[in-house]
Design a protein that fits this description.
Order of helices and strands: HHHHHHHHHHHHHHHHHHHHH
Structural class: mainly alpha
Distance between the termini: 41 Å
Number of domains: 4
Oligomer: single chain
Number of strands: 0
Helix content: 55-70%
Shape: globular
Radius of gyration: 24 Å
Strand content: under 5%
Length: about 450
C-alpha cells in the first residue's frame, strides 16, 4: 500500500460511483468496444479487467499497465496519462496539472476582457447565485440557464475568434461537470449529459480549429460518450461527423468515410446531421479518387435536403449544416475530382456558397466557413487561368483570417500558394504580388505566436 494516499484512479472511480468491481468492469468493457470502433484494432473490443487487477490499480500496486489496458484506461479518463492515473492522487495532480503551463497566470494577472466579456461575466455571476438559491443541486432554472449559455456559444462561435471563446466554453463545461457530480433527478441527469456533451463537442471543434487534432479527437470521444449516456442520436451523429471531418483534414479519408458511415447508424429526430455526414463522405471519397462514390454521396445529401423538415434536435449555430455549407463541401469534392467539368462545377458551387454566406448580417456571418468557400472559388478560378478572379478571393480571405484565424484556412492558403508557384502564370505581376501578400501574412502570424507555436 502506498503511504502517499489513494491513487488518482481510486479517487476518480469513487467520484464517478465506479468503485464496485462489477460496475467498473462494465464501464471498462464498454470503453474497450468504443475504442476498437474508433481507433482499432478490433481485437481491443474483447478486452476486460480481472478483479485482482482492478484492486491492484486502486491500491497503487501497478505503475505501468500493459498496452491494451493503458489505452483503455486513457480512453476512460481522457487527458490523464496512465502513469499519472495509477500514481498517488497528490503526486499525479502535481505531475499532470489540469491547467496547461501556457494558460497559468500569476495571482495578480487577469485575462484582458472587453466590455462584452465584463457584461457576460456579470450575467454568469447572477446565474450562479440563482442556481445556489434553488433547493436542490439542479433545478429548472439551472438547466434553463445552461441551455441558454450553450445556445449563445454555438450561435456566436462562427463569428468569434476561437482562442478567447475556448476559455469561456471550458469554464461552462467545468460547471456542467460539477453539476453532474451532484445528485439530481434522472431526467435532469440526462439533460446535463446532453449539455456537457455539446460543450465537449464545441471544445473538440475549437481544438480542431486551433490545429490541435489529438486534443480534438479526445474531446470528441468524450462528447460521444455523453451522447451515449444521454441516449441522444442527434449529438451522436454530429460528433461522428466531427470525427470524420478531423480525419479528412488529417489526411485519413478512409477513416473519414468509416466514421461518417458509423454516424449514419443513428437516426436523429430531425435536423441536418445526416446531410453533413453525406457531404463529408463526398469530400473523403473525392480525396480517395473515387468519383462514383463521391458523386453518389453528393446526390444522397441533396435528397436528404429535399426531405428536410423544420426544427433540429441540436441548438443550431455552429452545429447546424446550412445549404451554403453543403454547397462548399460539394465544391471541395469537385476540386478533388479535377478535370474541366468538375472544375466548372466547383466554381459554380463555391460562388453560390460565397453569395449566401455574404447575405447574412455581418455579426452572424460564418467567417471561417465563408473563407473556405472563397478558397475553393480561388482554386477553381486559378485552375482555369483566371488570376484576377482568384486574387480577389485570396485578398479577402487574408483580411478575414487575420481577424479570426483557423488552422484549416491557413492550410488552404498554403496549398493555394504552392499551386500558384507552379502555375504557368506564376511570373505575372498579379501572381507575384499575391504570393508576396500571402508570405507577408504568414510572417506576421509567426511573429505573433507565443513560444511553442500556435496557442
Amino acid at each position: 500500500m502506498d503511504q502517499l494516499g489513494p491513487t488518482l484512479f481510486q479517487t476518480l472511480i469513487n467520484q464517478r460511483g465506479w468503485q464496485d468491481y462489477q460496475v467498473f468492469k462494465r464501464r471498462y468493457e464498454q470503453a474497450a468496444k468504443q475504442l476498437a470502433e474508433l481507433e482499432g484494432p478490433h481485437s481491443i473490443a474483447t478486452a476486460t479487467i480481472e478483479k485482482r487487477q482492478f484492486f491492484r490499480y486502486a491500491h497503487g500496486e501497478v505503475r505501468t499497465p500493459q498496452t491494451v489496458a493503458r489505452r483503455v484506461l486513457e480512453f476512460m479518463f481522457p487527458g490523464i496519462p496512465a502513469a499519472c492515473l495509477l500514481a498517488p492522487a497528490q503526486t499525479a495532480q502535481e505531475a499532470s496539472p489540469s491547467v496547461p503551463e501556457t494558460e497559468r497566470r500569476s495571482p495578480g494577472e487577469s485575462f484582458e476582457y472587453g466590455l462584452e466579456d465584463v457584461v457576460t461575466a456579470a450575467a454568469n455571476e447572477s446565474a450562479r447565485f440563482a442556481a445556489r438559491a434553488e433547493s436542490s443541486n439542479v433545478g429548472p432554472h439551472t438547466l434553463e440557464q445552461l441551455e441558454a449559455d450553450i445556445r449563445r456559444i454555438v450561435d456566436s462561435y462562427p463569428n468569434r475568434p476561437v482562442g478567447p471563446l475556448f476559455r469561456e466554453v471550458r469554464a461552462l463545461r467545468d460547471h456542467a461537470f460539477e453539476l453532474l457530480e451532484g445528485r439530481q433527478p434522472p431526467q435532469y441527469t440526462r439533460d446535463l449529459y446532453l449539455g456537457a456533451g455539446i460543450l465537449c463537442g464545441v471544445l473538440a471543434n475549437a481544438s480542431f480549429d486551433l490545429g490541435r487534432y489529438d486534443a480534438a479527437e479526445t474531446q470528441a470521444r468524450t462528447a460521444f460518450l455523453f451522447g451515449e449516456l444521454a441516449g441522444h442520436n442527434g449529438l451522436r451523429t454530429w460528433v461522428r461527423g466531427l470525427q470524420a471531418l478531423i480525419s479528412y483534414w488529417d489526411g485519413r479519408p478512409g477513416d473519414a468515410v468509416r466514421l461518417a458511415e458509423s454516424g449514419s447508424a443513428f437516426t436523429p429526430e430531425s435536423g441536418t446531421a445526416h446531410i453533413r455526414l453525406e457531404s463529408i463522405k463526398a469530400r473523403a471519397y473525392g480525396q480517395l479518387g473515387r468519383p462514383g462514390d463521391a458523386l453518389a454521396a453528393l446526390t444522397a445529401a441533396d435528397h436528404l435536403r429535399d426531405r428536410l423538415t423544420d426544427g433540429d434536435e441540436l441548438p443550431g449555430g455552429m452545429m447546424a449544416f446550412p445549404v451554403e455549407k453543403q454547397l462548399f463541401y460539394a465544391s471541395s469534392t469537385h476540386l478533388w475530382l479535377a478535370g474541366p467539368q468538375h472544375l466548372g462545377d466547383a466554381e459554380a458551387r463555391a460562388e453560390e456558397a460565397v453569395e449566401m454566406f455574404q447575405a447574412a448580417p455581418p455579426e452572424r456571418q460564418r467567417l471561417g466557413e465563408m473563407s473556405l468557400a472563397r478558397m475553393d472559388l480561388a482554386m477553381a478560378r486559378l485552375g482555369r487561368g483566371d488570376l484576377d478572379g482568384a486574387a480577389a478571393q485570396i485578398h479577402t480571405v487574408l483580411a478575414t483570417n487575420a481577424r479570426r484565424p483557423t488552422e484549416s484556412v491557413d492550410r488552404r492558403i498554403g496549398h493555394f500558394s504552392r499551386q500558384l508557384a507552379a502555375h504557368p502564370g506564376a511570373g505575372a505581376p498579379i501572381a507575384i504580388g499575391l504570393r508576396e501578400s500571402i508570405i507577408a501574412q504568414q510572417e506576421r502570424t509567426i511573429a505573433e505566436l507565443p513560444p511553442g507555436g500556435r496557442p
